[in-house]
Amino acid sequence: MKQLPETKLNSLAADIKHWGRELGFQEVGISGIDLGPHEQYLNDWLATGYHGELDYMAVHGTKRSRPAELVPGTLTVISARMDYLPGDTETIRILDDPSQAYISRYALGRDYHKVIRKRLAKLATKITEAVGEFGYRAFVDSAPILEKAIAEQAGIGWIGKNTLVLNRKAGSWFFLGELFTDLPLPTDSPTEKNHCGRCTACLDICPTDAFAGPYQLDARRCISYLTIELKGSIPVELRSKMGNRVFGCDDCQLVCPWNRFAKPTQETDFLPRHKLDSSSLVELFLWTEEEFLNRTAGSPIRRSGYQGWLRNLAVGLGNAPTSTAVIDALKSRLAGASELVREHIEWALEQHLSSKTQC
């Protein structure tokens, strides 16, 4: 595109942030493309093997940490955040009721990828209308990008001890999206210094002790990884620690002091669907595959697949209080169950048999 004077670029940057808020983003920042320190952190993390089966984290070389290698011509990145926390979900009550199914708050509504990508496309259209054609690509957790590092560089927040981006005014209950651009926009400063201080609440609360230390997440022990990314058997030694968390985990966010400033989402697309915020483990376990596909259409839950869904719920039922309904539900799935699901059902039944024996 044609060169723009500095004054025009400055006003454009201000307009982009204004347009972003009009489109439903709570905050927009602009960063450069030097992610050097974060590249070293990624390499060290991969070297430890903490990524487990997340092979995609290692296969793209330096493209993940060097935006101009992923999208040639990239000069700046527009980073945007959108709140997703439903305001009327009884999060703690569900975790305290082992017969209920806990689903990570981000997955209760529609798939955020599509929602945010459409907003980013609209933002790009507004920029085009203002300055003419320019080079850009929109991303929402869909390419090899260090999105948290970019958000930190753009002043959206800081990366906390739980490895999530934290914001003093909004906590961490938000999604991120990016526009890689060939515009030489003025960049924001990473104004949000690390405000975690001596707090270790997120590290201490983790049910499976997935944190090797501050800023060091061993994904292989993380419930989000175990219930979503892992395709095989969940390690036996971690199953009882998962409780009723059947898709993702929010514990490290629930105890973060900064999340007292989080605001309920205004996006109706992110509100709970099909009573996913208040369903029992038995009820969800008895869904047929057709019901699963119908009720998770356009939902992040599809990522686990039906077999992964049943596997996770079987573990949850193994951790639930012993009852006729729980035992009957587990036994009803044994006939015709895949090898993966059968293994977890048998484990669950053993937990209840053991419980009765101890009584």
TrEMBL record:
PROSITE patterns: 4FE4S_FER_1, 4FE4S_FER_2. Its EC number is 1.17.99.6. One of its GO terms (cellular component) is cytoplasm. Pathway: tRNA modification; tRNA-queuosine biosynthesis. Residues 187-216 form the 4Fe-4S ferredoxin-type domain. Its cofactor is cob(II)alamin; [4Fe-4S] cluster. It catalyses: epoxyqueuosine(34) in tRNA + AH2 = queuosine(34) in tRNA + A + H2O. It is found in: Cytoplasm. GO terms for molecular function: 4 iron, 4 sulfur cluster binding; cobalamin binding; epoxyqueuosine reductase activity; metal ion binding. The active site is at D141 (proton donor). One of its GO terms (biological process) is tRNA queuosine(34) biosynthetic process. [4Fe-4S] cluster 1 binds at C196, C199, C202, C256. Its main location: cytoplasm. Keywords: 4Fe-4S, Cobalamin, Cobalt, Cytoplasm, Iron, Iron-sulfur, Metal-binding, Oxidoreductase, Queuosine biosynthesis, tRNA processing. TRNA binds at K231. Cob(II)alamin binds at R64, D141, N162, V165, L176, S224, C249, D250. Binds 2 [4Fe-4S] clusters per monomer. Catalyzes the conversion of epoxyqueuosine (oQ) to queuosine (Q), which is a hypermodified base found in the wobble positions of tRNA(Asp), tRNA(Asn), tRNA(His) and tRNA(Tyr). Monomer. HAMAP family: QueG. This is Epoxyqueuosine reductase.
